[in-house]
Amino acid sequence: ANDGYKLWLDYQPIERSELHQTVSELFSGIFFFGKNPSHEAIKKELELASQGFLKQAPKYSADRFQTTQLWIGTRQELSQFLGLEHQAKIKALGEEGYWRGSIIHEGKSYYALIGNSPVSTLYASFDFLKSIQSNTFDKDTEKTDYPKIKLRMLNHWDNLDRTVERGYAGFSIWDWHRLPGYVDPRYIDYARANASLGINAVSLTNVNANAWILREDFVEKVKVLADLFRPYGIKVFLTARFSAPIEMGNLETADPLDEQVRSFWKERVDMIYEAIPDFGGFLVKANSEGQPGPHEYNRDHAEGANMLADALAPHGGIVIWRAFVYSHEIDEDRHKQANLEFEPLDGKFRDNVIVQVKNGAIDFQPREPFHPLFGAVKETNLGMEFQITQEYLGQATQLVYLGTMWEEILMDKTYRPKPSSTVARVIDGSDTEQNLTLMAGVSNIGTDRNWTGHLFGQANWYAFGQLAWDPDRSAAEISEEWIKLTFGQKPEIQAKIKEIMLASHEAAVNYMTPLGLHHLMGRSHHYGPGPWVEGGRADWTSLYYHRADSLGIGFDRTETGSGALNQYANEISKTWSDPKKTPEKFLLWFHHLPWDYQMQSGNTLWEEIGLHYDKGVKTAREMRSNWRELEKLVDSERFSHVDQLLGVQIEEAEWWRNSSLLYFQTFAKRPFPDSIEQPE
Ligand code: GCU
């Protein structure tokens, strides 16, 4: 049986005898060059791995030459065994880069795991273990790697009472009540999992923040986590509630230019650094969805962020300020608000501020065009915010592999600041001058035994980590890797699961919101269809987004409509203002079109909508029949878990298709295409 707790770090016995032989030799003489907490973490990992791979404990050598097979240490520690050229090559990979490969010394060959720092030595070790697990380890091939993005971060939306906003995998893993005295061993497994992906930062608390986390007694609890995570290279951040000076500082204002407010923050920050000398900084949601912020005092986002940045700067801390802002008063189209508020502030943020932007301008929809802020500013550090938790994507009942969606966004051309720019080149800083780079993912982790609720939620955590490390990696390749680590080597398993994963995102888009439709989920919980949702604030109704009427459907964001399309580079806004030249996947995102509008296929828009919804359902069914072919190959516990959930997914897909099509038919007043299963 397998309950999924071990994630992708499930070190199974090595089957191939040649590899078994090589690995048992390496594990029979391990020598650590230095002593430090990250090396201790490596030791623990090697022990787990050795027990799993070989069913025996590893052996350490006291002498680096005699019986040693495996050398572990930093570049500095091993410098005498590396030629100058080799040293320079490794050094060039940066603080977090590593090299692993064979070193010949006085006629004897050693396999070495070398990082430019203790933490990157840990990264080298995880990569080494992964290559064994996936049966690709080869002593004679060298491997180097380094991350392209500086901060690779999880954002937990965890409340202090352990509920999790948009969390579908149980309660928060942070047991605030029993901290600091009781340290759940799960924290270490959490750190191992993240470090194995190169995730190096975590914000522990909800962006809809509670000021209490800044209290001394809470900081004492946070310190325990920070101390545990440090050897794994993970820095801790907290969310800061902008009104904290009022709520806990007894002040009458939280005005960022007020001296008392500034000293409040400075004192809080100094207190935190006293406990946690490498504290990362604050993540802030301000003036969005009712959260307090600088606008209450007629100050702008830069004034708010800079005030916190000034308090953090002396300690090397940073502020991550979110660009997810919207309110119905600013513009008739919510799409435009972030650019309206942040473009004029370009150049006004301190160097230690990163503006964190969701991948799209609305809100983590099944498919969105990239956010028009990417490429629109020149002197602002921009970070990417993806959502790993599947708020709008079936939550924890549906299998939706998000790697493909993120890849699509990262590869999108922004045409700014350079004609060749893509979202990836903007956020990794290569086409911009930004010195701080960030990719954040809203975590899908909870107290469920398998961490993520749906077993395949683990793949999204994994894929996020890999793309944050290297935004150019292919989502297909990442899925192959995850499958091998999670389900083993059998080629039939590989092929089937990969097929399921790669089809899953497009399927969800099709049965939920095809052709650029968006935000049609049930009100506020965002689960299941709700294109009919009305009442209350305009931007909380579904009609606001789909705009269906007797003539047609879609949101006109061209010049005849809200004009949001103009927030993109000319290359996009000019071309896409013509529906014929707009990618059909975004058609109704930017255009309101007649039901009989002719699509590239020759079908009418109405027919094509029907075909897409129907195709989504059919793919969901294929996903399950593919999965069922694995019944004999996957252990029964995981087989049944996924199989049952795929059953729910099919029902939900049908529910989406039937209800959405029947609802839209009340406007279109046309029959469904004959070739689809008729909704009822
Ligand atoms: C969405 C989500 C909220 C969350 C918000 C945010 O609107 O539904 O729960 O607080 O995003 O990102 O701040």
Automatic annotation (TrEMBL):
<dbReference type="InterPro" id="IPR037054">
    <property type="entry name" value="A-glucoronidase_C_sf"/>
</dbReference>
<dbReference type="Pfam" id="PF03648">
    <property type="entry name" value="Glyco_hydro_67N"/>
</dbReference>
<dbReference type="GO" id="GO:0005576">
    <property type="term" value="C:extracellular region"/>
</dbReference>
<feature type="active site" description="Proton acceptor">
    <location>
        <position position="363"/>
    </location>
</feature>
<dbReference type="InterPro" id="IPR017853">
    <property type="entry name" value="GH"/>
</dbReference>
<dbReference type="GO" id="GO:0033939">
    <property type="term" value="F:xylan alpha-1,2-glucuronosidase activity"/>
</dbReference>
<feature type="domain" description="Glycosyl hydrolase family 67 C-terminal">
    <location>
        <begin position="452"/>
        <end position="674"/>
    </location>
</feature>
<dbReference type="GO" id="GO:0045493">
    <property type="term" value="P:xylan catabolic process"/>
</dbReference>
<comment type="subunit">
    <text>Homodimer.</text>
</comment>
<feature type="domain" description="Alpha glucuronidase N-terminal">
    <location>
        <begin position="7"/>
        <end position="128"/>
    </location>
</feature>
<keyword id="KW-0624">Polysaccharide degradation</keyword>
<dbReference type="InterPro" id="IPR005154">
    <property type="entry name" value="Glyco_hydro_67_aGlcAse_N"/>
</dbReference>
<dbReference type="InterPro" id="IPR029018">
    <property type="entry name" value="Hex-like_dom2"/>
</dbReference>
<dbReference type="InterPro" id="IPR011100">
    <property type="entry name" value="Glyco_hydro_67_cat"/>
</dbReference>
<dbReference type="InterPro" id="IPR011099">
    <property type="entry name" value="Glyco_hydro_67_C"/>
</dbReference>
<feature type="domain" description="Glycosyl hydrolase family 67 catalytic">
    <location>
        <begin position="133"/>
        <end position="451"/>
    </location>
</feature>
<comment type="similarity">
    <text>Belongs to the glycosyl hydrolase 67 family.</text>
</comment>
<dbReference type="Pfam" id="PF07477">
    <property type="entry name" value="Glyco_hydro_67C"/>
</dbReference>
<keyword id="KW-0858">Xylan degradation</keyword>
<dbReference type="Pfam" id="PF07488">
    <property type="entry name" value="Glyco_hydro_67M"/>
</dbReference>
<keyword id="KW-0378">Hydrolase</keyword>
<feature type="active site" description="Proton acceptor">
    <location>
        <position position="391"/>
    </location>
</feature>
<dbReference type="GO" id="GO:0046559">
    <property type="term" value="F:alpha-glucuronidase activity"/>
</dbReference>
<keyword id="KW-0119">Carbohydrate metabolism</keyword>
<dbReference type="InterPro" id="IPR011395">
    <property type="entry name" value="Glyco_hydro_67_aGlcAse"/>
</dbReference>
<feature type="active site" description="Proton donor">
    <location>
        <position position="289"/>
    </location>
</feature>
<protein>
    <recommendedName>
        <fullName>Xylan alpha-1,2-glucuronidase</fullName>
        <ecNumber>3.2.1.131</ecNumber>
    </recommendedName>
</protein>
<keyword id="KW-0326">Glycosidase</keyword>
